[in-house]
């Protein structure tokens, strides 16, 4: 069964500092991996996705993530944090092919950006 | 382009009252549709999913039900709300056979009093 672990429910960074949000996954087959962002009282917005092409995936708002099979990780990074990055971030995994595929979400990491 | 709508945005209901939340998708055909609940500090819980009209699968036993009367309409219902039904309800869609990312609606904040 697939699963996702996000290390750290809360992360604080200073404005301009590196953002690193950690995600480890478990999957019996090559997975699809996603990062979503959620601002307060809004739905989830897709930041980026890994679909077995390039292992370094670039997304919106300057975020990127690297798929490391040996470490079963898909950490999210951004070189320089902006105040507008304060939000909750969810890592998700989906596996298999064809028809309905269940997506499993992590429990989320709240990012605080300190001015 | 595709858009997803949820109605209402916020709702305050007394315990024991009925519930009906609506989700509609525009710009796509035969989407997979999903209902999630997000309770404080508990991440996303998949409640129901549907791969076609009238086809509903339940992930978690509870006093909620779902229906899909039209291709792009997904409804979440309850006959009698419980306090524990409070939360943020999210509808999502994706296309079968694609890369499986889901696209979310703006959500409905439900408070049961």
List keywords for this structure.
heterodimer, A: 115 residues, mainly beta, six-stranded mixed sheet, five-stranded antiparallel sheet, B: 113 residues, seven-stranded mixed sheet, four-stranded antiparallel sheet, 58% strand, globular
Summarize the biggest pleated sheet of chain B: 7 strands, mixed
Q: Could you tell me the radius of gyration of chain A in angstroms? A: 14 Å
Please report which band the strand proportion of chain B falls in: under 5%, 5-15%, 15-25%, 25-35%, 35-45% or over 45%.
over 45%
Q: Stretches of chain B where pLDDT falls below 50 for ≥5 residues?
A: none
The proportion of strand residues of chain A reads: over 45%
Counted beta strands of chain B = 11
Could you spell the SSE succession of chain B in H and E letters? EEEEEEEEEEE
Distance between the termini of chain B: 38 Å
Tally of individual helices of chain A:
0
Strand segment count of chain A: 11
Which structural category do the helix and sheet elements of chain A fall into? mainly beta
Mass-distribution shape of chain A: globular
Largest interface: A-B, 24 and 25 residues
State Rg of chain B. Answer: 13 Å
Biggest pleated sheet of chain A: 6 strands, mixed
What's the order of the H and E elements of chain A?
EEEEEEEEEEE
